[in-house]
Amino acid sequence: MGVRGLQGFVGSTCPHVCTAVNFKELAEQHRSQHPGCTPTVVVDAMCCLRYWYTPESWVCGGQWREYFAALRDFVQAFTTVGIKLVFFFDGMVEQGKRAVWVRRRLKNNREIARIFHYIKSHREQPGRNMFFIPSGLAIFTRFALKTLGQETLCSLQEADYEVATYGLQNNCLGILGEDTDYLIYDTCPYFSISELCLDSLDTVMLCRERLCESLELSLADLPVLACLLGNDTVPEGMFESFRFQCLSSYTSMKENADKRGNVILAVADHIAKVLRLHQGEKKLEEMLPLGQNKALFYKGVASYLLPGQTSPWIFQKPKGVTTLGKQIVSMSTDPEFEPESLVCTHPESKEETPLCTHPETEQEDPMNMEPEMKQQVTMVSDTEILKVARAQHVQAESYLVYGVMSSGEIECSNTLEDALDQALPSQAFVYRPMRQRVYSLLLGAGGDGASSGPVIREWFVHSGNPLRHPDLVRPLPMHVPGGTPSLKVLWLSQEPGVEARRMDTLLACLDLSASREELQAVESPFQALCCLLTYLFVQVDTLCLEDLHAFIAQALCLQGKSAGQLMDLQLEHVDSRAVQLGSLLVRGLSMLVLVNSACGFPWSNSDFMPWNVFDGKLFHEKYLQSEKGCPAEVLVEQNRSRLTRFHDLKSIVCKACMREDRRIVSRQHWRPHHPGGHHPRLCQGGPWLLVRLVSVECREDAHEKGGKKNKTVVPLGKTCRGFISESRNLKGFSGRIVGVARMVY
Q: Where mainly located (predicted)?
């Protein structure tokens, strides 16, 4: 993240760039300089997740009540001294940065493999040096902050650009985060979240002006330096030989700098003494070995220019406009043109005037999306509905919906899953049928769900997926009693009876319409949990009665426990299967955010927030007790009222599963004939491994054949049982794979 090597360089070679500051004092100075203006800190939330997650336990699925309490303390510390916080979250991955995203996800896979190896070897959680944030932390942090009354926004591109823009245009006190790109942007001051002491509100300010003094550069030179060193736009290896040449000719080596530090000094020296000498006379491609990477380099430099800012390093020309995110940059290397500065302009502007040049400029209305719509081909043609989806996305009220409707491309990061445990499927597959029905609702479904209809590109991390290409997934037809209502009805209508239609549609997305009456009779917050558990147990044959007992018991016991009580829980040991089950359930809760927002919010968000229905350590405790064969009375901690509700909820889930021909049995039924307690159909690799193989083969087949008509799209819209039974009629699947499927069953 950010500029390669710059963080270490600042800490070791230029420590004077870092200045100790106190937020309370800064806020008082800001109020005296700007009377009537509330000091505002804009927070890059994605950089802060590790800082915010202070609970000791992290592998069991998340200590959500403890985490919520930590967020509340964080917000309170700033509001007490009169500082307003505005939080930004990444809304989507830009295409130009997909390769970086993939590299990080594959690196995370290796880290997760080491975590599970440690758990199996030591039966305990690894140390903090192996810390991995709980699954779903980013999405649920948005809702936690909104619950705490905080302004929370989701970006339409990389969040750092929007954070820097917001800070500049709103005359903010500063940016709080951990990304060296904020040293490159010419925006408000940048403060380190990792150095923040919450009790005193002391932290470190990284001063870009002092960095420029140390490097003998101007602020306008920093984007060029960043691209030559490597960042998320320009790969680090692209200018490796150039940096080596700079280092070879550099004569002012610093003893206190390591090799990378001296490289940064050498490149900065080259910019100051060579490039700037010919600035305005020669183009960058005449002074740098850009070659075929010229366009990418210019794009990287321009990506640091905020609305209204210019760069002396790029020539301007009214023709040949290149779109960069939400801005438009005019670039030219025509020698007949006078060397002028690059200007960021508004997409609808006919003149090259700055979009925003003053902090008091009116902010963009999230409902006003015509500029983007004119430039972008979307999956949905209804502009009114697309406006609503965009506004909900920007206000962090929905999840994945706008990505599906605008670009038809979504992603999901790593989950704590054991790649060596073939008995439990990846959450990417478990919740795919649910997503496919949502795609049907948002985009319209094809007739057979496999060979027609729009294609969604899913970048979901799971074992065996090299992420070279996205999985190509089509919608599954939905069966809503009375017919599927339109999005305008679900999202905009206030007519009587619409709320019931929203609920019917939500249950149809989970394929639970047959159990509508029983599930709707369950009280909050257990209704959403029962729906999710029913869906989960229908999809995954290897889940047993003991698992269901643990899920229900922890949800019931959670209602009477404080964050402090949960913190004091001590586990006998950590079980790797329970770790994956905890993450599987939390990912399911995040999928309920998608379904609920797509259906017009029939549920209150609080009904399925994890701090209301799930706690990692508490679930782990109940799982271990259930595995030992402890009776329900022990699981619900000898509480008679809980015991009654336990049996009621268990009965509802089991009956709903039976309607789908899924009988939930005790693990004891498997053990006599299958040592180790593994499900009989999964002992030899099993159907979920088969589904993974089919997924990979079909994905590669699609890209090998090319061409729209020849693409084989992975349906993966059924349980294993349904998938095999329908495979005879699927076009595009090889006979060899189908043959293996029949042999397994």
A: nucleus
